[in-house]
């Protein structure tokens, strides 16, 4: 069985045309893996999976993990996190998920369950494209640098500023606005200048794909090579369900 995969922007994102039964048949697992690591974000429009199917779809890419302590679990499925805007949730800064952990999640499957009539898009950015755009001199400057990431003081770790993707081997810029605190093996005054520049670079519009949701859409992204941003430009309720896929520690990319 083959998949129809169509790019959604020039550098990142692709839409996959298939029914949920086709996706869960076991016959397209390798094609889905290949598509994810080529396009970084996969879009399944109007898929509308049951919670069990949502989890099964994420499990094609790896072992799923329970909702983290700070997130609200689904009442019947602890591997689904529920993000409800009426509960105060918003993720309106660019970030890669859970980089405060030593083992960074491989990715996630996000399903729109209740969509506001306007607004609430999610934007994704390619960290491959951001790194590739750097000059040779800047690449040398950040080679073998490490950055501190945390969610609360004392609950953090360090990661390479540029990672080697565990599957593709490509270099990806790996700093983000929510969790990255500083480049630890640079003087603080240099980190304070270079880190904001790198964070801003990732979000250049030509490195991004912006998804306008319909209810039942599912997006799956490669968390190691992307950042995302949920636009908080709506007033009605917005509910999304997320299933996270377990990952690993990330190694540096060396020039």
Q: What is the CATH topology descriptor of the largest domain?
A: Double-stranded beta-helix
| CATH architectural arrangement of the largest domain | 4-Layer Sandwich
User: Which residue ranges are poorly predicted, with pLDDT under 50 across at least 5 consecutive positions?
Assistant: none
- Give the amount of beta strand, in percent: 25-35%
> What sort of overall outline do the alpha carbons produce when their principal axes are compared?
globular
Instruction: Summarize the amount of helix as a percent range.
Output: 10-25%
Number of domains: 2
CATH class of the largest domain: Alpha Beta
SSE string, helices as H and strands as E: EEHHEHEEEEEHHEEEEEHEEEEE
In whole angstroms, the N-to-C terminal distance is 40 Å
CATH superfamily of the largest domain: Clavaminate synthase-like
Detail the topology: elements first, then pairings.
Blueprint: E1 4-7, E2 14-17, H1 20-23, H2 29-39, E3 41-44, H3 51-59, E4 64-65, E5 72-73, E6 81-84, E7 107-114, E8 122-126, H4 127-132, H5 136-142, E9 146-152, E10 155-160, E11 162-164, E12 171-173, E13 180-183, H6 188-202, E14 208-211, E15 218-222, E16 226-230, E17 239-245, E18 251-252
Parallel strand pairs: 2-3
Antiparallel strand pairs: 1-2, 3-15, 4-17, 5-6, 6-17, 7-15, 7-17, 8-14, 8-16, 9-10, 9-13, 11-12, 11-18
